[in-house]
Amino acid sequence: MPEAPETGQTYLENALQKARHYHELTGRPCLADDSGLEIDALQGAPGLHSSRYGGAHTPHSEKIRLVLEALARVPEAERTARFRCVAVAVGLGPEPLVAEGVCPGRIAWEPAGCGGFGYDPIFWVPSEGATMAELPEGRKHQISHRGRAMRELARKIRES
After folding, report:
1. Whole-angstrom Cα distance, residue 76 to residue 53?
2. Residue 82's beta-bridge partner residues?
3. Is 6 inside any structural domain?
4. What is the CATH number of the domain that holds 89?
5. Which of 20, 38, 82, 86 is in the most buried spot, having the most CB atoms within 10 Å?
6. Domain for residue 103, yes or no?
7. Contact at 8 Å (CB) between 89 and 97?
8. Cα(136)–Cα(123) distance, rounded to whole angstroms?
9. Which residues are designated catalytic?
10. Whole-Å CA distances, 36 to 23, 98, 104
11. Residue 132 resides in a domain
12. CA atoms within 13 Å, Cβ hemisphere of 82
């Protein structure tokens, strides 16, 4: 199938574009999400552009390096961040169902762990005492932004 556009100005707009695109192509109900890493000291960047930070084809290791370089002189107390995810379901009724999940954390001083993907090696979760990349997969899904959004969306689907 042709790839869905992602030209929205918000996570919700991007998630809706993707879900509607595949719903129109298949005629079936579709789920989609959009997510990003929001770093307070970078005024919310990379945010909506997390996957394209540093360039569309930039490897994750380089994106991580760019984030750490941008935060090199930012003190611990100001390295607050969050992963945010907006998930939608279309085709189940007249209006899309929407859910959001947030996982608060901090940006670590250096990468740690080999699990997960993307920015997980530098996303420190204080409540876990580890980066996302150091967490067992099951635990990561329990606390992650995407896991939270999908559980909320599943609840809304069951109630619709």
Report:
1. 22
2. 38, 104
3. no
4. 3.90.950.10
5. 86
6. yes
7. yes
8. 14
9. 34
10. 23, 17, 12
11. yes
12. 13
pLDDT single digits (tens) 65-107? 999 999 999 999 999 999 999 999 999 999 999 999 999 999 9
Encode pLDDT of 16-35 as tens digits: 999 999 999 999 999 999 99
Contact between 19 and 96 (Cβ < 8 Å): yes
Q: Is 59 exposed, middle or buried (0-12, 13-18, 19+ CB in 10 A)?
A: exposed
Question: In this structure, what token pair is assigned to residue 159?
Answer: 């109630």
Task: Specify if 35 maps to a domain.
Answer: yes
Tokens at residue 103, please?
């996982």
Q: Look up residue 19 and give its two tokens.
A: 């879900």
Alpha-carbon distance 22 to 154, whole Å? Answer: 19
Q: Facing residues of 38 across strands?
A: 46, 82
- Total domains in the fold of the chain: 1
User: How is residue 10 annotated by DSSP?
Assistant: S
Centre a 10 Å sphere on the Cβ of residue 47 and count the other Cβ atoms it contains: 17
Q: How far apart are CA 116 and CA 135, in angstroms?
A: 8
User: Amino acid identity of 126?
Assistant: P
Contacts of 43 (CB under 8 A, 6+ apart): none
The two tokens of residue 52 are 């394209």
End-to-end, the C-alpha distance of the chain in Å comes to 29
The CA R_g of the chain, rounded to the nearest whole Å, is 16
> Diameter of the chain by CA atoms?
51
Q: Which residue has the tokens 């930070």?
A: 53
* Boundaries of domain holding 79: 11-159
